[in-house]
Write a structure and sequence with these properties.
The chain has 404 residues and is of the alpha/beta class. The protein is 41% helix and 19% strand. It contains 14 helices and 14 strands.
């Protein structure tokens, strides 16, 4: 079997001198390499290119010559990113990758980050880039990618670039030698979603599950947190999901800043693994500073959770929709699933006397959940608050039963 290698990924046309220096240094570090050229023009490097730009282009579904003749740089970047992603996915599936390193400017960075989306958790990914100071969350998404500033442009060697390229090579070399914790994919891993408003419940559930020998991995429901959890569920990391904090659905519905996208609450159903779901924090939508709240919501019930966090109370009509959405996302699964509803409140500030206490709005949510579930999904109602000790114990008991 071919040994695992570090993949060197980038534009070997415009950045040839830089990549030659990088490859030479990695060879000095005695690292096995797979080199992939994602540049569309003539290759200008002094090392063996294992996967040429013609192969990368073909993997995108468009030939290299057609990409060149189009003269559309933006489309070329998109297609080479797509092709590189497919090639990396194939290499990973064959267990040939122990690390990935790339270097680039704006276009090169996009291609590298797009390709790295196909590399699973635990395989180190490092990008030396000229645009690190730029907002790159949409490109990095939920992947464990290390970004490193090139300081100077990657456009020929100099004293600074030589130093930083050597540092980047040394970093990916060292990271690639750290093997994945064997416990990451062994059984007895449980994912749990949390928020400041459900911390007490999550902490208690975590304690109880750890007492039973489970490892619990908490994901902060900040949009990227929920999306990351969904991604890792699809990578088969977890045995079960305790989805206590589904608030990201409310942000997706109302245009809040912490949406995890339309695929939130779908991965466990697709994978068929046990999931216990709570409508936790569906009483709130998240915005930044109060002056950033959209004009249409300025007259709604708003609460400053922190100077840069403004919460908006969901209303009856929104909760009817949210209840239906939550249930519909759980219907298409072969795995066991249940919904537990805490009738006395779904967040820290949703209790009698709390700033978001609104029994009518909650009733609309709970009735929508039951009406949509009908006889297809078991819905349990508890006369408890989400942060009560009794509710945490009930969650753990029900989850363990689902897992059996």
């Amino acid at each position: 079997m071919q040994e695992k290698s570090i993949v060197v990924l980038g534009c070997f046309d415009t950045k040839g001198e830089d990549f030659t220096f990088l490859v030479d240094f990695l060879i000095k570090l005695k690292q096995p390499l797979i080199t992939i050229n994602v540049g569309v023009m003539e290759t200008l490097v002094d090392f063996d290119v294992h996967i040429g730009n013609d192969v990368v282009a073909a993997a995108s579904g468009v030939g290299l010559q057609a990409i060149r003749e189009s003269g559309d740089r933006g489309k070329a970047v998109e297609l080479m990113g797509k092709g590189a992603a497919e090639i990396l996915a194939d290499l990973v599936s064959k267990n040939l990758v122990k690390g990935v390193i790339g270097m680039g400017g704006g276009g090169g960075t996009f291609i590298i980050l797009e390709a790295m989306q196909k590399v699973t958790l635990g395989i180190p990914k490092l990008c030396l880039s000229t645009v690190v100071a730029k907002e790159l969350s949409r490109q990095i998404r939920v992947k464990d990618i290390t970004m490193m500033s090139s300081v100077v442009d990657i456009a020929g060697l100099n004293r600074i670039s030589r130093l930083l390229i050597r540092q980047a090579a040394t970093a990916i070399s060292a990271m690639s030698e750290v093997t994945e914790d064997s416990g990451l994919r062994k059984r007895k891993n449980i994912a749990i979603s949390m928020f400041g408003n459900t911390t007490k419940c999550v902490d208690r559930c975590t304690e109880l599950l750890k007492e039973k020998g489970y490892e619990v991995m908490a994901f902060h429901a900040t949009g990227v947190g929920g999306a990351t959890m969904e991604s890792l569920i699809r990578e088969d990391v977890f045995d079960a999901i305790l989805d206590i904090t589904t608030t990201e659905l409310a942000d997706e519905l109302c245009g809040g800043i912490l949406s995890a996208g339309p695929d939130r609450l779908t991965a466990a159903s697709e994978m068929g693994i046990p999931q216990l779901v709570v409508p936790g924090c569906l009483d709130m939508v998240n915005f930044a500073q109060i002056d950033t709240v959209p004009q249409e919501y300025q007259t709604r019930k708003l609460y400053s959770w922190a100077p840069d966090v403004t919460l908006m109370r969901t209303n009856i009509s929104e909760n009817k929709v949210l209840g239906k959405q939550l249930v519909e996302k759980l219907k298409n699964t072969t795995g066991p699933r249940e919904i537990i509803v805490p009738l006395k409140g779904i967040s820290q500030i949703d209790n009698e006397g709390g700033v978001f206490y609104d029994p009518e709005a909650n009733s609309a949510l709970f009735e929508s959940i039951k009406l949509t579930a009908k006889n297809e999904i078991h819905v349990i109602e508890m006369d408890a608050h989400i942060n009560d000790e009794s509710f945490a114990r009930a969650l753990v008991d029900r989850l363990l039963k689902l897992m059996k």
